[in-house]
Amino acid sequence: MTLTDTFTLANDVKIPVVGFGTWQTPDGDVAYQATLDALNAGYRHIDTAAFYGNEESVGRAIADSGIARNELFVTTKLWNADHGYAQAQAALALSLQKLGLDYVDLYLIHWPNPVAFRNEWQQRNADTWRAMEEAYNDGKARAIGVSNFQVHHLEELFKTATIKPMVNQLFLNPSDTEDEVVAFDNAHNILNEAYSPLGTGAIFDLPEVQAVADRLNKTVAQVVLRWSLDKGFLPLPKSTHTERIIENGQLFDFELSAEDTAVIDGLHGKFGFHKEADQVEF
């Protein structure tokens, strides 16, 4: 397996098994250089979002990389203020403009229940999804999906959707494996993507993981990202340091033993859980 190996989505679109995340990566030179470094290191899957504020820098790096568009997989996401049919159409058009692309490979609803629409989230998601289905049918998004959706959000969306989400991007790491929604996604052929696969850095403070990494002569990040892949998740590691970007993609020349996996499985709750989408204040 390599960085260019793929999972196959429900619509037969291929998605590289590891993505490069750009959350909390400042717009401008930092986001540009980190994305370019990732592409130069062999990543072909780049994950951004309107809310990250760095789509222009990410898009510039994609253009300057010289890599053929059909070799890349680019994800962006619809922010909470833009739920609704016309709003979602306009938001995708703006994201494409900023990225400098004719289409994205994956477009996601970032959160299911924004505070501004809490009394009508079901209808807002239905209207938003209709716009996303149109974008998919028009070729502006090769795949569509969601992020931070729990089971009841998905069940509600299924009532009106004519195309099921192909991806659900979730807070997935050893501290929180979100077992209920992961099982639901698997049953409906929805790929589970793992954002914050390293717990936004908290994993590096745990000596039990360091012991596994030392024994394998690997980094803590490599061990935990390998664990994520073994779980069937698609991890989205983020870094702005060239050497770590390279290391985080070097996951395919070792295996975790059952004992190693058990150690990492035992970290449940060690550094927090996902935000409850129905309670977020944004």
Our count of helices gives 10
In the CATH hierarchy, the architecture is Alpha-Beta Barrel
Number of strands: 10
Report how far apart the termini are.
39 Å
**Helix share, percent:** 25-40%
Q: Summarize the main sheet.
A: 8 strands, parallel
Mean pLDDT: 97
Q: Which value, in Å, is the CA radius of gyration?
A: 18 Å
Strand content: 5-15%
SSE layout and pairings?
Layout: E1 6-8, E2 14-16, E3 20-21, H1 29-40, E4 45-47, H2 55-65, E5 73-78, H3 85-99, E6 106-109, H4 121-137, E7 144-147, H5 151-158, E8 167-171, H6 179-187, E9 191-195, H7 207-216, H8 220-230, E10 234-235, H9 242-248, H10 258-265
Parallel strand pairs: 3-4, 4-5, 5-6, 6-7, 7-8, 8-9, 9-10
Antiparallel strand pairs: 1-2
Q: How is this structure best described in words?
A:
Belongs to the aldo/keto reductase family. Pfam families: Aldo_ket_red. It contains 10 helices and 10 strands. With 282 residues, the chain is an alpha/beta fold. The strands form 2 sheets. Strands 3-4-5-6-7-8-9-10 form an 8-stranded parallel beta sheet. A two-stranded antiparallel ribbon has the order 1-2. The longest helix has 17 residues. The mean pLDDT is 97.
